[in-house]
TrEMBL record:
<dbReference type="GO" id="GO:0046872">
    <property type="term" value="F:metal ion binding"/>
</dbReference>
<comment type="subunit">
    <text>DNA polymerase III contains a core (composed of alpha, epsilon and theta chains) that associates with a tau subunit. This core dimerizes to form the POLIII' complex. PolIII' associates with the gamma complex (composed of gamma, delta, delta', psi and chi chains) and with the beta chain to form the complete DNA polymerase III complex.</text>
</comment>
<dbReference type="GO" id="GO:0009360">
    <property type="term" value="C:DNA polymerase III complex"/>
</dbReference>
<keyword id="KW-0235">DNA replication</keyword>
<dbReference type="InterPro" id="IPR045085">
    <property type="entry name" value="HLD_clamp_pol_III_gamma_tau"/>
</dbReference>
<keyword id="KW-0548">Nucleotidyltransferase</keyword>
<dbReference type="GO" id="GO:0003887">
    <property type="term" value="F:DNA-directed DNA polymerase activity"/>
</dbReference>
<dbReference type="InterPro" id="IPR012763">
    <property type="entry name" value="DNA_pol_III_sug/sutau_N"/>
</dbReference>
<dbReference type="Pfam" id="PF22608">
    <property type="entry name" value="DNAX_ATPase_lid"/>
</dbReference>
<comment type="function">
    <text>DNA polymerase III is a complex, multichain enzyme responsible for most of the replicative synthesis in bacteria. This DNA polymerase also exhibits 3' to 5' exonuclease activity.</text>
</comment>
<keyword id="KW-0547">Nucleotide-binding</keyword>
<comment type="similarity">
    <text>Belongs to the DnaX/STICHEL family.</text>
</comment>
<protein>
    <recommendedName>
        <fullName>DNA polymerase III subunit gamma/tau</fullName>
        <ecNumber>2.7.7.7</ecNumber>
    </recommendedName>
</protein>
<dbReference type="Pfam" id="PF13177">
    <property type="entry name" value="DNA_pol3_delta2"/>
</dbReference>
<keyword id="KW-0479">Metal-binding</keyword>
<dbReference type="InterPro" id="IPR027417">
    <property type="entry name" value="P-loop_NTPase"/>
</dbReference>
<dbReference type="GO" id="GO:0006261">
    <property type="term" value="P:DNA-templated DNA replication"/>
</dbReference>
C-alpha cells in the first residue's frame, strides 16, 4: 500500500497544518450547527478530500448522535453536566467503531457518495445527482453526504443545476465540494456555501511528518535528506509521502542521505546553487554558464533550479538590499514562465544570465544596442514615409521585436494587466492589418474587449504612424515560432558581447 494511503488521516486530530479549519468544523459539530454546503479550496495535497470524508463520517457517526442528543432544539447549550468542560476535538471525533464509521473507512458507506466532477461534469450527471438526493434518505446516519471533488470542472449548465439543489437544501442532505481553482466557481454557488481555504503548511511541519512516518516504517533518513524532501513536496503532504515512498527503495542497506535524494530526483545541491548566484551577481557570467551546462547535463530540473535561485536571492535581498538582487529576481521570474514553452528547457535560464549581465553592466547594454541598431544588418525603421504618407514595409524580425516591445511598454503605462497579457502574444503585420497572435481563447477574449482593443489600436497607430486595422487571432504555432526566433536573436546578441 502506498504510504500516503496508509497514513491518510481518519480523524480530525490526525489532520496537520489546517487547525483554523478543524477548529471551526469541530465547533459546528459541538453546537450541532453543521451547514448544508461547504466548499474546500486550496492547492492539491493539503487534505481537502480527506477533511471532507472525516466531516461526513463525523456527522453520520452513531456516537455523534449520542452527543447531539444533549443539545437543545437550537443546539446552543449542552447538558449542565458538561457545560463547563473545555472544547476539545476528541469529543466530536468519529468513533471509528460504529457501523457508519467502519463502512465509511471501507469506502462502502451508502450515506457518503463521492463524485469526481472532472469525469462527471455535465448537466445530465448533476440532474441524476439531484434526483438521487431528493428521494434518497440516509441509511444509517443523519445526512446523505455528497462529496464533489474538482467541482470547478463542472459545465455552466451543470453548475446551474447544482445551484437549484443547494439553494433549497433538504434537511437530510449535505454537500461538500473541493476545488483547486476557486476562481472558476460561480458567485451564485459561493454565496450559498461556507468556504474554507486550506493553507500550505510550513516546511517544518512537513519535515516532522516525514520524520515520523519514516520512523514508523523503519526508513533511515538523515535530517538534511528530510529537509530536501519536505521542500520538494511544496506544501503537499501527499507529495511528501509519495517522494518518501520512491526514495525508500534506493538504499535499503544504509541511511539515505541528501545526496541520494538529490541524485534520485534530479536536483542540485544548495551549495552549488549558492555558488551559481554568487557567480551571476559578481559578474562572472561565463563561469555561471559553465555551471548551468553541467547542471543541464546532470538532469537537474530547471524549474526546481530557478525556484531555489529566486529563494536564495530573496534571502540576500533581505540582508543587503542591492539593486542587482532585485533585478536578478525579476529576470529569473520571467524566465521561469518561459521554461514550459521553450524547446530547450535551459535556454530561458541562460538568456536570463545574459540579461542580468547587461542590466548590471551599462557598457554591455550599450554594445547590445549598437548591435541591434547596426544599419548594415537590418533596416533602421519599421515604416517608411513617402510624400507625407506612411507606408508599412516588411520589417526585419529583430526590429519588429523592438517595435512590439515599445508598444507593450506604452500599453503598460495605461493598462498594466493588458501589457502582461501581451508579453505572451506575437505580432504580425501584413499590408494595413496588424494582427496580435495568441495561444489561448481566454487571452483572445480579453484582447477583444472594446476598451482593450481601442487602447491597442490607438497605441499601435501612434507607433506605426498610420491608421491601420488591429485584429486578434488564436495561432499557437505562430507564437511558438515567434518566441523561438526571438530567443535565438537574444543568444546571438549575447554571443557578440563576449567576442
Amino acid at each position: 500500500m502506498a504510504l500516503y494511503h496508509k497514513y491518510r488521516p481518519q480523524t480530525f486530530a490526525e489532520v496537520l497544518g489546517q487547525d483554523h479549519i478543524i477548529e471551526i468544523l469541530t465547533n459546528a459539530l459541538k453546537q450541532d450547527r453543521v451547514y448544508h454546503a461547504y466548499l474546500f479550496c486550496g492547492p492539491r495535497g493539503l487534505g481537502k478530500t480527506t477533511v471532507a470524508r472525516i466531516l461526513a463520517k463525523a456527522v453520520n457517526c452513531q456516537q455523534f448522535l449520542v452527543h447531539s442528543s444533549q443539545f437543545t432544539d437550537h443546539g446552543s447549550q449542552r447538558a449542565s453536566s458538561v457545560n463547563h468542560e473545555p472544547s476539545t476535538v476528541n469529543q466530536f471525533e468519529p468513533c471509528e467503531k460504529c457501523q457508519a464509521c467502519l463502512s465509511a473507512n471501507r469506502g462502502s458507506s451508502l450515506d457518503i457518495i463521492e463524485i469526481d466532477a472532472a469525469s462527471n461534469r455535465g448537466i445530465d450527471e448533476i440532474r441524476e445527482l439531484r434526483e438521487k438526493s431528493r428521494f434518497s434518505a440516509s441509511v444509517i446516519g443523519r445526512k446523505k453526504t455528497f462529496i464533489i471533488d474538482e467541482v470547478h470542472s463542472l459545465t455552466k449548465e451543470a453548475f446551474n443545476a447544482l445551484l437549484k439543489t443547494i439553494e433549497e437544501p433538504l434537511e437530510h442532505l449535505m454537500f461538500i465540494m473541493a476545488t483547486t481553482e476557486s476562481h472558476k466557481i460561480p458567485a451564485t454557488i459561493l454565496s450559498r456555501v461556507q468556504r474554507f481555504d486550506f493553507k500550505k503548511p510550513p516546511v517544518d511541519t512537513i519535515s516532522k511528518h516525514i520524520d515520523q512516518v519514516a520512523k514508523n516504517e523503519k526508513i533511515s533518513l538523515d535530517q538534511e535528506a528530510i529537509s530536501v524532501l519536505a521542500k520538494l513536496a511544496e506544501g503537499s503532504f501527499r507529495d511528501a509521502l509519495s517522494l518518501l515512498d520512491q526514495i525508500k527503495e534506493t538504499k535499503k542497506d544504509r541511511q539515505i542521505s541528501s545526496d541520494d535524494v538529490i541524485k534520485n530526483f534530479g536536483l542540485a545541491r544548495i551549495s552549488v546553487i549558492n555558488q551559481l548566484i554568487d557567480l551571476i551577481t559578481t559578474g562572472n557570467h561565463n563561469k555561471a554558464i559553465e555551471v548551468l551546462e553541467k547542471m543541464e547535463a546532470s538532469g537537474v530540473d530547471p524549474n526546481y533550479l530557478v525556484e531555489n535561485m529566486i529563494e536564495n536571492l530573496i534571502e540576500k535581498l533581505k540582508n543587503s538590499p542591492e539593486d542587482i538582487y532585485l533585478k536578478s529576481i525579476e529576470i529569473l521570474a520571467r524566465a521561469q514562465n518561459k521554461i514550459r514553452f521553450s524547446p530547450l528547457s535551459y535556454l530561458p535560464i541562460k538568456l536570463a544570465v545574459f540579461k542580468i549581465r547587461t542590466s548590471a553592466n551599462p557598457v554591455a547594454q550599450e554594445k547590445v544596442e549598437i548591435i541591434k541598431n547596426d544599419p548594415k544588418k537590418e533596416p533602421e525603421m519599421f515604416e517608411e514615409k513617402t510624400d507625407n504618407k506612411s507606408v508599412i514595409k516588411p520589417a526585419s524580425k529583430s526590429n519588429k521585436n523592438s517595435q512590439w516591445s515599445e508598444i507593450i511598454n506604452q500599453i503598460k503605462i495605461e493598462n498594466p494587466s493588458l501589457s502582461a497579457l501581451l508579453e505572451s502574444c506575437a505580432p504580425e503585420t501584413k499590408n494595413d492589418t496588424f494582427t496580435i497572435m495568441t495561444r489561448y481563447k481566454f487571452h483572445k477574449d480579453n484582447l477583444d474587449k472594446s476598451n482593450n482593443l481601442d487602447l491597442l489600436k490607438n497605441v499601435i497607430t501612434q507607433k506605426l504612424g498610420q491608421n491601420i486595422q488591429v485584429m486578434t487571432e488564436i495561432n499557437a504555432e505562430y507564437c511558438q515560432n515567434y518566441f523561438s526566433t526571438k530567443e535565438e536573436e537574444l543568444v546571438k546578441n549575447a554571443e557578440e558581447i563576449f567576442k
